[in-house]
Amino acid sequence: MWQVIHNAYIHSSTSLRKSLFKRMCTHVDDASPRVSYITASLYRELQKLKKKTSKANVN
């Protein structure tokens, strides 16, 4: 499942990413702390990937 989200994130536009993350956060607020922890870790991983891909594009 994470791979699907990851692929969708990489191939999506910035505005879509922002709205996706906002939507995830609003759902997480109502959910258990475990889900919010998973979402936060996923977001951090995606940020790392974004930095790597932007560095790769510069080179």
UniProtKB/TrEMBL annotation:
Lineage: superkingdom: Eukaryota
Protein name: Uncharacterized protein
Origin organism lineage: Eukaryota, Metazoa, Chordata, Craniata, Vertebrata
